[in-house]
Every structure is written in structure tokens, then in C-alpha cells.
């Protein structure tokens, strides 16, 4: 087990919900992260807020637990990426880069959001068909990562911001080598897909191995897909798919990668450990910005999350700070000296 960094001041929650600094959209002058953990002893704020909202607004418990149209979006996005790769098979490199940056990354990121829905079994009833469509949604990402994501994302929900059982919390090594310079943070951001894969090595819990037959199927499907599609679209077409996949998680400083910073980095000096993002990203990315709402009501499909925000606005848009631009988050992350990988609200792990 990696030793936990010693950080001063454990902040105890007195009300059950975290102390916040204001509410509403983050303004430029309000980004005030520090290069240190904000340690809390309280349980996840999401568990508490879900209980409070459910008791005050019981109608939030009546939303359907699945949303079948997501399956058709998976098929449409996979098809659109493959067909675009075919159209670009004889195109100049500059055009491939532009199309990958504008369209490919957006579609690939949208598939990651749908993989997220499938991870929580929010498309079909029962896990089997959710797992099958997760494999389909992961095909254009080339590297088989969907099943591993499902495993570690579920740990993220169970052990939110616990050092070091939440796979979303960066390890000290990341902060020491990448967290204190613009170049270091830019390199970390561009290669986040590699970083998260390597980080997962440090997080396996007892009896929590990611290995399964679904993981084997993930590798078989992606390798087969890559071989067959390569035969059809050629080198340039595959280049488009690879670039689209990498850019969707931050390669070449694509702003969509800032999602992984915006969601849980402590940009204000408060106990707020999760931030939503409201804006156009939710139109392009199946409401992925409604992140507080998702953690509060994990069994609610993305299409109903804005309704929860509207019903319980005093706990979201009128009760918490939130982002409106991934570009702004990325800019602040790269340019603020105090904005490092230690800018997190964290708690000690349940299991040491």
C-alpha cells in the first residue's frame, strides 16, 4: 500500500453536507485551488444529499432506471466513426487532424459517456446486454478499455476520494513529477489515457481483480475489430480512429479531457468534492456534466438528470459552485501554480 501523504487540518463536517463557498457558476477570479489535500472525516456528501433530497422531493425516486434509446445511440456513433474513417482513407493528414479534433473526439467522447451509462446498467434491465453493448461502444477506441473502466469506475463510486482506493485520485508520484509546471501538467493531460492505465496498478483491492471473461471478450472484440476495419479503411482511416480516441481524453490538449479535472478537483477552498458542468457539453455528451446529480442518484439515466436539477435546484445550481466551460478549467489547471494533483478533497480509506 502506498503511504498516505501527511497533510494538515482534517475538516469535520458539522451539518452533514459540505461547507461551500458561494454558489452558481465559477468565475475566473474564483478559481482558488491549493497544492494540498482538503481532508475530511465525513462520509460522501452524495449519500447525505440523496437522502435529504429524496425525503423532501420523493418524486425523484420515480424516474425509470433504464433508457433503451442509448443502445441505438451506441450503434449510430460507432457506425458514424467507422464511416468517417472510410471517407478519410485517402485524405491529407491535416484534414484527418481537423476532423478528428472537431468530430471524431466528440463522437468518441460521447461513446465514453454511453459506456459510463452501460457501466451502471442504465440502458437495459440486467447486466448481460449492458455488457454486450459496452463492448460495441468500446470498439472505435481501438485499445480495449471499456471493461476495465467499468471495474475501476465502480470502485470510484464506492470509495469516492479515498486515498488510495478511489482510482480517480492521483498518486503522489504524479504530483511530484508532473504537478508543478505547465509543461508537466500538459504532458500528464495529453497522455491521461496512459496515466490512468498505469495508475490502476496501484489500486487493486483484495478480491477486486479486474479480470473477467468480459475483459477477455473486450480484448478479442477490439483486436478483431481493429484488424477488419484496417483492411477496409487503411492506414489513414485508422489514424483518424486512433486520434479521435486519444483526443477524447485530452491528447493534444483537447478540452474534452478537462472533464476528468472538472469533476472532482477542488477548485474552491471548501469541502465540495464534486463539481457539475452546465452548458453545451451536455448536448454533445449525453448530460455528462450533471456530475453531482449522477453521484447523488447513480441509478438514474442521463436523460433525467436535468429534471433532478430543476426539482432540487437549491441543492445544485443554487447550492453549489459549478463549471460552465472545460476550456476555462483547462486554462486554470495549466496556468495556476497552486492547481496541482493534490487539489482534492480526500478522506482516509475504509480498508488499509
TrEMBL record:
Pfam families: FA_desaturase (PF00487)
Regions that span the bilayer: 60-82, 94-115, 122-143, 177-199, 211-230, 236-253
Species: Polysphondylium violaceum
Name the UniProt record assigns to this protein: Sphingolipid delta4-desaturase N-terminal domain-containing protein
Chain positions covered by the region annotation Disordered: 1-25
Residue ranges of every copy of the Sphingolipid delta4-desaturase N-terminal domain listed in the record: 32-71
InterPro entries: FA_desaturase_dom (IPR005804), Sphingolipid_d4-desaturase_N (IPR013866)
Biological process annotations from GO: ceramide biosynthetic process
GO CC field: membrane
GO molecular function, one term: sphingolipid delta-4 desaturase activity
Keywords, sorted A to Z: Membrane, Transmembrane, Transmembrane helix
Keyword Hydrolase: no
Record-linked PANTHER family: SPHINGOLIPID DELTA 4 DESATURASE/C-4 HYDROXYLASE PROTEIN DES2, SPHINGOLIPID DELTA(4)-DESATURASE DES1
